[in-house]
Amino acid sequence: IVLTGGDDRLWKTWGFPDGNILLTGEGHTDWLSGCCFRPSGTQLVTSSGDTTVRIWDLSRHGCTLTLRGHSRAVRGCSWHSCGDFVVSASADGTSKIWDVNSERCRFTLRGHEDSVNSIEFLPFSNTVVTSSADKTLSLWDVR
After folding, report:
1. Which regions does the record annotate with the repeat WD (predicted)?
2. Which 8-state DSSP code applies to residue 19?
3. What is the pTM for the complete model shown?
4. 44-59 per-position pLDDT tens digit
């Protein structure tokens, strides 16, 4: 299964090798910039130009949580390996650590001087790497 998101404001899961669409999700009001499966495979997270991050439940085929807090487009998102936290990177120059269980932002990471364009948890760690239009990479200890 492959997960994609695009300018059409939709995410799609594709089955391979046939390439058929298995599921489609809609709800964002602007382009999708990122999408990522939860490690358990039961949910996914998406980020969008509409400034939101959304959590989707695959068994219910719908959005279960919309996370708001960025002031500009969200450029990327990623799950922590435990599945309880999501990170997001934004054109507003910040990144956020979201607690999915409490449905709130735990931390806002500030330090880049321009848009934060990508974000990832390093596997099985509490370290996040971000890349920015300011031509820097940053490593963050989010404990």
Report:
1. 25-66, 67-108, 109-143
2. T
3. 0.94
4. 999 999 999 999 999 8
